[in-house]
């Protein structure tokens, strides 16, 4: 089960997300994650536009039920199958 404390080790596909560029502090994209690679997320916006967003130097704010969970993109620079096998104590 995905919780705010273990989200970094779970699957991101299907989650709603807002992307914040760390250099400017502005939201650069938002929508639902439909694909992930080691370095990028592909997000479909509310208008149906597909955006490929690099993870590096970005902050991602994920919507989990009633909580917003923020993760630094540099901390999740893993292939999805490697990240989900990680176990943090």
SSE topology sketch:
Elements: E1 16-21, E2 27-36, E3 40-44, E4 50-54, E5 58-64, E6 67-72, H1 80-83
Antiparallel strand pairs: 1-2, 1-5, 2-3, 3-4, 5-6
What report would you give on this structure?
This protein is mainly β. Helix content is 4%, strand content 44%. The protein is built from 1 helix and 6 strands; from the N terminus they run E-E-E-E-E-E-H. A 6-stranded antiparallel sheet has the order 4-3-2-1-5-6, with no helix packed on it. Strand 5 and strand 6 form a beta hairpin. The protein starts with 15 loop residues before the first strand and ends in a 6-residue tail after the last helix. The model has no long low-confidence stretch (mean pLDDT 89).
Low confidence ranges: none
Structural class: mainly beta
How many β-strand runs?
Answer: 6
Largest sheet: 6 strands, antiparallel
Beta-strand portion reads: 35-45%
Number of helices: 1
Helix share bin: under 10%
Broad shape:
globular
How far apart lie the N and C ends? 16 Å
Instruction: Give helix and strand order, one letter per element, not per position.
Output: EEEEEEH
**Order of strands in the sheet with most strands:** 4-3-2-1-5-6
| Radius of gyration from CA coordinates | 12 Å
Oligomeric state of the chains in view: single chain
What is the averaged pLDDT score? Answer: 89
């Amino acid at each position: 089960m995905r919780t705010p404390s273990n989200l970094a080790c779970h699957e991101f596909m299907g989650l709603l997300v807002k992307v914040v560029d760390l250099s400017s502090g502005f939201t650069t994209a938002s929508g639902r994650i439909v694909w992930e690679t080691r370095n990028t997320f592909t997000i479909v916006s509310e208008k149906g536009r597909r955006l490929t967003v690099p993870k590096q130097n970005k902050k991602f704010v994920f919507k989990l039920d009633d909580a917003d969970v923020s993760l630094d993109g540099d901390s999740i620079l893993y292939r999805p199958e490697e990240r989900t096998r990680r176990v943090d104590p």
